[in-house]
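A quick aside before the break. I want you to see a complete sequence-to-structure record at least once, exactly as it would be stored in a machine-readable document. Don't worry about memorizing anything.
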Amino acid sequence: MIETFETIRYTADVVCIREGAVLLIERGWPPHKGRLALPGGHVDPGETSRTAAARELLEETGVRVDPWDLALIGIFDAPDRDPRGRYVTAAYLVTVPADTTAHAGDDAAAVRWTPLSDARGLAFDHTDIVTSARHRYNAPF
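That is the input. The structure line, written in tokens, reads:
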């Protein structure tokens, strides 16, 4: 029997909601450069996915949240979810106050609050993550 191994990369993504809109970034780098996506990125050595999610949200959008305010949506691990290889992400949901502002930083070319009804066709499997957040939490957003 031949054993095969694959490198698995660990990431965290955030569905950040403000008054019925989700915070999306415009990707500044390949893959999916120029497409809208959820804020998120790699879990660094020594970090939990929850801490990484809060850090990535801050780095990419300027939005600061307490990691413990993040609610786990689920683990997304489809083998083909990222064209760069096998990526497994822990996705989180957070709701922020109506006066929360965001600005592009780090890997984001731009940020925007998008009505949830328009959050379709996102990069990677991020449309599925947003849909899962709505179903899992019976969210009225």
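Two observations worth writing down. Helices lie at 49-61, 126-136. The mean pLDDT is 94. We'll return to this after the break.
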